[in-house]
Amino acid sequence: MNRPIDNQHVLEIKALPSPRAIKTKLPITDQAAALVVESRAAVRRILHGQDADRLVVIVGPCSIHDPDAACDYAARLKPLADNLKDRLFIVMRTYFEKPRTTIGWKGLINDPHLDGTCDIATGMELARTILLKINELGLPCATELLDPISPQYIADLISWTAIGARTTESQTHREMASGLSMPVGFKNGTEGSLQVAVNAMTSARTPHHFVGINADGQTSIIKTMGNPDRHIVLRGGGGKTNYDAEHVARAEAAVAGEGIARPIMIDCSHDNSSKDHRRQGLVAREVLRQFREGRQSIMGLMLESNLHPGKQTWKQGVPLAYGVSITDACLGWDETESLLVELAEALAPRPA
């Protein structure tokens, strides 16, 4: 009797072009490569205390669903980043994969047409195209990596990455982070647990062996040496905030043994803003106050921002407003610009 045993709930298995094929089609330019090298080094200097006066700011859309709007945002952010570079090192959020608590749109890589067709091959090319454009503009990029496959396609264009609250506890993601070439921020758990992020930092600095793919898309054993450039990201959890001085001090003590001079970034959104995008400015100002009063363990903050404030609901076949998030609600550009200028001015040396 010949009964199928494998893949009983699988409708289709479709081969994806290899990382080498897509990188050959969309190669990194010398200009973009130089920016990635320089910006990763800049984040490392801040992280390890060699640049003690600046803060890293990861700012941009919660997720990118419209390439034109993303490039429009980058074009506005670039001159601002240049003007504020002495006080803030600004990296643009370019998030293409979205973890979901249950179900929902999974991001531009997974569903680039926003129609449920999940044309991942097109999504990978589209994500890489956007990253190339933004890097060539002179603006470094940040993202969240959700699996060990995507980095083979886009990681050469990323200057900083996050491991999210839903995946920080995952062994797969910790192993992946141990081999990444850029600094990595581990978020605390969705319920607020700090220990999972601390454990992730410890795990990611050690060597690992795990199953992944190589540049030709072949299943491979990946051997890593460990990543020395790690930190935690406080994002609140379980409906509670954790950006106040007490929580920051607790986080500082928890990772004191990791040998990182400035191991704490604050996510001004999510539970820290009570999921109200309008409160992100309040959180950012409090973080800045702590930093100016001597909490040197703070290395930066994150802001969710788009061309226009708020969010809209994506429904298949319904036209979307330009420059408005379809995932988390975001600050609008005008408020973002004012807030970043305010933060930079507050970091300027006080007159004697």
From TrEMBL:
It catalyses: D-erythrose 4-phosphate + phosphoenolpyruvate + H2O = 7-phospho-2-dehydro-3-deoxy-D-arabino-heptonate + phosphate. Its EC number is 2.5.1.54. One of its GO terms (biological process) is aromatic amino acid family biosynthetic process. One of its GO terms (molecular function) is identical protein binding. Keywords: Amino-acid biosynthesis, Aromatic amino acid biosynthesis, Transferase. GO terms for cellular component: cytoplasm. Belongs to the class-I DAHP synthase family. PANTHER family: PHOSPHO-2-DEHYDRO-3-DEOXYHEPTONATE ALDOLASE DAHP SYNTHETASE, PHOSPHO-2-DEHYDRO-3-DEOXYHEPTONATE ALDOLASE, TYROSINE-INHIBITED. NCBIfam families: aroFGH, PRK12755.1. Stereospecific condensation of phosphoenolpyruvate (PEP) and D-erythrose-4-phosphate (E4P) giving rise to 3-deoxy-D-arabino-heptulosonate-7-phosphate (DAHP). This is Phospho-2-dehydro-3-deoxyheptonate aldolase. It comes from Nitrospira moscoviensis. The gene is aroF.
